[in-house]
Design goal:
With about 280 residues, this protein is α/β, with parallel strands linked by helices. It is about 40% helix and about 15% strand. It is built from 10 helices and 11 strands. Strands 3, 4, 5, 9, 10 and 11 form a 6-stranded parallel β-sheet that branches. Helix 7 links the parallel strand 7 and strand 8. It is globular, with a radius of gyration of 19 Å. The chain starts with a helix and ends with a helix. The structure holds zinc ion. This is Polysaccharide deacetylase. InterPro entries: Glyco_hydro/deAcase_b/a-brl (IPR011330), NODB_dom (IPR002509), Polysacc_deacetylase_ArnD (IPR050248).
Length: about 280
Amino acid sequence: MTNNYLKRQKIISFVAIASTITACSISPSASPQLGLNEPISKSHTAQVQNPAKGQVNELPPSAKVENLTFTVPTKFQGKTVYKVQLSSNKKVIALGIDDGPWPKTTLEMLDILKQNDVKVTFFWVGQALQANPDLAKQVVAEGHAIGNHTWHHWYRRMDEATAKSEIDRTSDLIYKTTGVKTSLFRPPGGFLNNGLAAYAKSQKDAVIMWSLTSADTDPHAKPQAFVNNVLKGAKPGSIVLMHDGGGDRRRTVEALPQIISGLKQQGYRFVTIPELLQMAQ
Ligand SMILES: [Zn+2]
C-alpha cells in the first residue's frame, strides 16, 4: 500500500509539474519550485488511475525534476528509530546508504541495485550533493528514497542556529536539485546529543539510526566481512548501515551484490525506510 501510495503521489506530482511545464515552457531544472503550489485537480488523479487507457500525457524531455515527498507516519515524527517492529514478522529489510552522492561509487551501486530490482534509502551530505547534482537526480529517478545527513557531516556539539543551518541548507538543496522533500534525518556518526537530532525532532523529522551495520568504514576489513556482518545480523525490520561516499567505498560496492543475494536467499524483500515505517506495528 505504501509503495502504491508513494508511486501514486509521485505520478500525480509528475503530472502536475508536467502540465505546468507545458503551459509555461520553462525548464523545471532551472526552477523546480514551479508547479509546487499547483492545485492537483481530480482530473489529474483520474488520469493517473487509468494509465492503460492512454490518458496520461507524455512528459516533456525536460521534466527531469519531479516533486516527491518522503513523509513518516505520525507515530515516528520527532522520534528516533533504530529498527521497526513488524506486525507479522514479515521478512523485509531496509538498506540505508550514507555520505553520497559520490562519483563512481554511487553510480556503480545504482547499477547493482537496478539489476537486482532493489530500492534503498540514500542519506545525502549537502556538500556532496552540491558537487554531484546529476548523480542525485539519477538516484531519485531510479526510485530510491532520500534522507538528510547534514551539510558538513560534523560530529561536534552545535548551537541551535548551526544545527538548523546544517539541516535546512541540506533540505533546501535536496529540494532544489531533485524536487524531493524528506522528513528522514540521519545524524552523522549516529551522534544523538550534539544538537542536530534535537533540531530535527523539533521539525517533526524522524531521526533514523540503524540496527545493523555492515561496518564498511573499517579501513582494514575485506568486503567479505561486510557481507558476513549483514547476513549474520539480519532480522525482519532491520535498518542496515552502509556507505557510498565519504571515502573510498570500492569494497562496499564489491560487497553489495553478495549482501543482496544473501538476504534474498534468506527470504528477505527490500523496502525503503519510508516504506518500512509504514509497515510498522
Ligand atoms: Zn555519515
